[in-house]
């Protein structure tokens, strides 16, 4: 196949838009958290971006997209990108762009996916545990799912489709968020008092940049600027997000008597996450309907998990990404049409009722992998190096105690926090010294 300059140019832009989403995620999440933990979120996200990028370069891409071994995992033929062409395509995946450009686009997905979990573990997870967690999560959960659905694995052979990641990314992350919240436990003083955002404008800026970047995320998954798929994906993505934002705003208004800014931006993100798997297969009219379903069901998920069950998923990743992604992935089985995407599938409304059950299998597998795999990883870490900061560290904040930095230049407050942290360390040293002295006397 001959490389297409238009497709190549579009994919260069699309990959950059997805990269923009990663710092945007930091802005969104830090704005919704308490000030004393704002810098820690950025450290997790930027360190995670670097670590996950290197992992993808060394072996992640190869085991995800390499030739399949019994439909379960790829191989090591492309480690360090050896053999991936820069002047020719990987025809089985993206026949009109350079192979290395396909690698780079998928790298952005591999980086942002585990980092979505920072919204769940926020304000209470040790940084060293976080590093091991996201690395293990990528190797044991994300890479296999990518291969099964996008790399020609057994779910792809079964007929499961996922245009841009509702199954591979949002379902797995959403259910992982539930598991992580349960294993970590609630933050200290759990309740409305600790859920007040420290900067709503920062969160709105982050959500706006996420919305912009999502056009690269979804429309870029067409892997081409040719034809109508990428163009249709853009309008479908925008419509579902807009509808879901209105739904969340309206429901918050009904429940509290006031329309909430935070609910509105969360609704927009839920709409983006939810339409992701279906965005390349459905019409704008059907995206409108799907957006309504995403908005209502994902908002209900927050009420169930946070308010009824008291599960401390700090920024509602389980609902905004998980529940929304499940709705969108199942919607493929109802609304997908080959008239929109000739390379896709037809759903129930277009004469193929079996697709709904096939999608349900994909969702169930991703949910089980996300929840079960995360539970196991965190339980191992919990019993070895520990996963949660001490109560004292949590009260002081992760910015000072984990990174000795503050997100804001309030010198007096910074010095007071550092004094508190230093006193805490001195108290621990005294206790340890006393224990050693008592032991020596015995």
From TrEMBL:
<feature type="transmembrane region" description="Helical">
    <location>
        <begin position="97"/>
        <end position="118"/>
    </location>
</feature>
<dbReference type="InterPro" id="IPR024041">
    <property type="entry name" value="NH4_transpt_AmtB-like_dom"/>
</dbReference>
<dbReference type="Pfam" id="PF00909">
    <property type="entry name" value="Ammonium_transp"/>
</dbReference>
<dbReference type="GO" id="GO:0008519">
    <property type="term" value="F:ammonium channel activity"/>
</dbReference>
<keyword id="KW-0472">Membrane</keyword>
<feature type="transmembrane region" description="Helical">
    <location>
        <begin position="229"/>
        <end position="249"/>
    </location>
</feature>
<keyword id="KW-0812">Transmembrane</keyword>
<keyword id="KW-0924">Ammonia transport</keyword>
<feature type="transmembrane region" description="Helical">
    <location>
        <begin position="317"/>
        <end position="336"/>
    </location>
</feature>
<feature type="transmembrane region" description="Helical">
    <location>
        <begin position="287"/>
        <end position="305"/>
    </location>
</feature>
<keyword id="KW-1133">Transmembrane helix</keyword>
<comment type="similarity">
    <text>Belongs to the ammonia transporter channel (TC 1.A.11.2) family.</text>
</comment>
<feature type="transmembrane region" description="Helical">
    <location>
        <begin position="196"/>
        <end position="217"/>
    </location>
</feature>
<dbReference type="InterPro" id="IPR001905">
    <property type="entry name" value="Ammonium_transpt"/>
</dbReference>
<feature type="transmembrane region" description="Helical">
    <location>
        <begin position="130"/>
        <end position="151"/>
    </location>
</feature>
<feature type="transmembrane region" description="Helical">
    <location>
        <begin position="356"/>
        <end position="378"/>
    </location>
</feature>
<feature type="transmembrane region" description="Helical">
    <location>
        <begin position="163"/>
        <end position="184"/>
    </location>
</feature>
<feature type="transmembrane region" description="Helical">
    <location>
        <begin position="261"/>
        <end position="281"/>
    </location>
</feature>
<feature type="transmembrane region" description="Helical">
    <location>
        <begin position="12"/>
        <end position="33"/>
    </location>
</feature>
<dbReference type="GO" id="GO:0005886">
    <property type="term" value="C:plasma membrane"/>
</dbReference>
<feature type="domain" description="Ammonium transporter AmtB-like">
    <location>
        <begin position="9"/>
        <end position="408"/>
    </location>
</feature>
<protein>
    <recommendedName>
        <fullName>Ammonium transporter</fullName>
    </recommendedName>
</protein>
<feature type="transmembrane region" description="Helical">
    <location>
        <begin position="45"/>
        <end position="65"/>
    </location>
</feature>
<dbReference type="InterPro" id="IPR029020">
    <property type="entry name" value="Ammonium/urea_transptr"/>
</dbReference>
<keyword id="KW-0813">Transport</keyword>
């Amino acid at each position: 196949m001959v490389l297409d300059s238009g497709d190549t140019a579009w994919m260069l832009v699309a990959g950059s838009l997805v990269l923009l989403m990663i710092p945007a995620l930091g802005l969104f999440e830090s704005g919704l958290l308490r000030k004393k933990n704002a810098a820690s979120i950025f450290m997790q996200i930027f360190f995670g971006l670097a670590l996950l990028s290197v992992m993808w370069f060394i072996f992640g891409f190869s085991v995800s997209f390499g030739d399949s071994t019994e439909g379960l995992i790829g191989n090591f033929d492309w480690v360090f990108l050896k053999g991936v062409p820069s002047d020719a395509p990987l025809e089985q995946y993206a026949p009109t762009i350079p192979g290395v450009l396909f690698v780079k686009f998928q790298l952005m997905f591999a980086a942002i996916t585990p980092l979505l979990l920072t919204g769940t573990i926020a304000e209470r997870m040790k940084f060293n545990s976080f590093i091991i967690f996201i690395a293990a999560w990528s190797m044991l959960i994300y890479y296999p799912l990518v291969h099964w659905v996008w790399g020609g694995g057994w779910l792809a052979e079964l007929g499961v489709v996922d245009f841009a990641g509702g199954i591979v990314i949002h379902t797995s992350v959403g259910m992982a968020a539930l598991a992580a919240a349960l294993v970590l436990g609630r933050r200290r003083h759990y309740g409305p008092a600790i859920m007040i955002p420290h900067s709503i404008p920062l969160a709105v800026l982050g959500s706006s940049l996420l919305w912009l970047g999502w056009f690269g995320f979804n429309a870029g998954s067409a892997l081409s600027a040719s034809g109508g798929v990428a163009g249709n994906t853009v309008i479908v993505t925008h419509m579902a997000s807009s509808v879901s934002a209105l739904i969340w705003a309206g429901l918050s208004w009904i429940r509290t008597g006031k329309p909430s800014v935070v609910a509105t931006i969360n609704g927009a993100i839920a709409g983006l996450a939810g339409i992701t798997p279906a965005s390349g297969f459905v019409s704008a009219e059907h995206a409108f309907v799907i957006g309504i379903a995403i908005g209502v069901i994902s908002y209900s998920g927050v009420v169930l998990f946070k308010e009824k069950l008291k599960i401390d998923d700090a920024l509602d990743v389980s609902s905004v990404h998980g529940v929304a992604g499940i709705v969108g992935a199942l919607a493929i089985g109802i609304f997908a049409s080959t008239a929109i995407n000739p390379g896709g599938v037809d759903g129930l409304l277009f004469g193929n009722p079996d697709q709904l059950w096939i999608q349900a299998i994909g969702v169930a597998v991703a949910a089980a992998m996300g929840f079960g795999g995360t539970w196991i990883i965190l339980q191992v870490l919990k019993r070895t190096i520990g996963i949660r900061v001490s109560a004292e560290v949590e009260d002081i904040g992760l910015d000072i105690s984990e990174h000795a930095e503050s997100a804001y230049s309030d010198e007096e407050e910074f010095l007071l926090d550092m004094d508190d942290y230093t006193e805490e360390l001195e108290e621990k040293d005294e206790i340890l010294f006393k224990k050693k002295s008592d032991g020596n006397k015995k």
